[in-house]
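Illustration 12: Phosphoserine phosphatase.
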Amino acid sequence: MPSSSYTLVLQAPLLSASPLAAVAELSGTSDIERVSDSVARLHGVDPARRADIAAYCEQHGLDAAFVPSGRRFADFGLVVSDMDSTLITIECIDEIADMVGVKHLVAEVTERSMRGELDFTASLKERVALLAGLEESALETVYRERVRLTPGADTLLAACKANGVRFMLVSGGFTFFTERLKAELGLDYAFANVLEVADGKLTGRVKGDIVDASAKARLLIEIRQQLGLAPDQVIAMGDGANDLKMLAEAGLGVAYKAKPVVRTQADVALNHVGLEGVVNLFA
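Figure caption equivalent — predicted structure in token form:
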């Protein structure tokens, strides 16, 4: 997103005057636009001071993002989101595993995979194998009782609909959940892995190609091209290493309460606010 000037957007659950003033001084500006109790925009900032600003904000629980000045949310045409621990608060596979008493085993592998320590495809097959024999009806129980939208997701989705921005859910999880979320929330696109079922029970296998990091990036590019959008008209957000290639293909890559490997490579990291923070980045 080429721009010669940047706005520094500060966000926190409660953005008090003292840290706001301190960041303004660090960024070399007195042009402060107070948007709400949780959002402020600092104009005319010096991007060369990013490192000092980032260190201060991390220490004081603030989310800081440099965005091109004058950019509006309506300038985008597509938001691409991971599902587990991004659009929703849980890791679905961990909760499914809880139904067969192996959550602790699966959750450990999930965590290592998200940190980028394990090959995603191999780790997914390993985890799904532990689910063999589970009644398919248990998936409905997980969806009904445990799936909850991440705070601020409703605000983000409403902004997409109001501004004509398409929303795409792409997950290394399962279509059982993505398709239900797509229908319930009115999402435009949804892609995920298919759990194999036989005689009403999970076989412990996944059908078809695995939606891994490369597949996520490829799907983003395919839908972006279908819509006739430029790369800088796409926002992608995720939390794990499996999202990195997807984030790199977007004009704005957002790490949402993400693993360190993702935070350091994304354009923006939101660690303290909800998904409304994506909308608040723009005027």
